[in-house]
Specification:
Blueprint lengths: L3 E7 L4 H13 L5 E7 L2 H8 L8 H18 L7 H9 L3 H13 L4 H14 L7 H10 L4 H10 L3 H16 L7 E6 L2 E6 L4 H8 L13
Parallel strand pairs: 1-2
Antiparallel strand pairs: 1-3, 3-4
């Protein structure tokens, strides 16, 4: 049997996307899958589908605060969250960061995984404003890019090519049925299967015929 293509549509503004990202990164070395990162823009998905940030509902925000802390511990991902973060997220955009990741995906895709992780660390663990050029460049250097390459990529994010690619990827997620993130699409038996959320990866494994070994599986020997 051939390898199953699994696409992960994500935005670093989403802590649940970080959880799903890390688990899938672990399973790409265990399951018979080809994992493809699809940086997209959550704001565009929300607007197109009429969805709203879940934390806008006070009781849901109260629950999310507890849920993300529990999930972070269980998934072993260093998400740090407090009540103030909901306001910070609404007031601080990640569009520039997602355009930067998109530009990397277009030119230097080998850095997408490390760069995405670095943006999540800075946004959710260090509460850094990743819309600022200096912070974007610092994240890029930490992810392994040279200063020269990082500056070149930063200059690309205002180009129509990068903007259009991010828009097209976002629209592709919507066509698959996405209404939020993370959106995972597995191409199996000739059709796409959409899974929403970081807590549906066990079901993903069941559908594609792979064994779920928990969120922190032991790598194959």
């Amino acid at each position: 049997m051939g390898r199953t293509l699994v696409e992960l549509f994500y935005d670093v503004v989403s802590p649940y996307s970080w959880l799903g990202f890390e688990v899938l990164c672990r399973y790409q070395h265990i399951w018979n899958i080809d994992l493809r990162f699809r940086p997209a823009f959550l704001g565009g998905i929300m607007q197109a589908t009429g969805n709203k940030p879940p934390a806008m509902l006070p009781k849901r925000a109260e629950y999310l605060l507890k849920d993300i802390k529990r999930m972070a511990k269980y998934y072993q991902v260093p998400v740090q969250i407090s009540q103030d973060d909901f306001k910070r997220v609404l007031g601080t955009g990640t569009l520039e960061a997602m355009r930067f990741i998109t530009a990397i995906d277009m030119t230097q895709p080998q850095y997408v995984e490390s760069l995405s992780r670095e943006f999540w660390l800075r946004f959710w663990s260090q509460r850094e404003d990743i819309s600022q050029p200096a912070n974007i460049l610092a994240a890029a250097r930490q992810a392994g890019l040279s200063s020269e390459l990082a500056q070149k990529i930063l200059e690309m994010i205002s180009s129509s090519a990068v903007k259009n690619r991010l828009k097209e990827t976002t629209e592709e997620a919507i066509k698959y049925g996405a209404f939020g993130m993370p959106a995972v699409v597995a191409h199996f038996n000739g059709e796409p299967h959409l899974f929403f959320g970081s807590d549906r990866l066990e079901l993903l494994g069941s559908v594609i015929g792979e064994k779920w070994l928990g969120p922190v599986p032991s790598p194959k020997m």
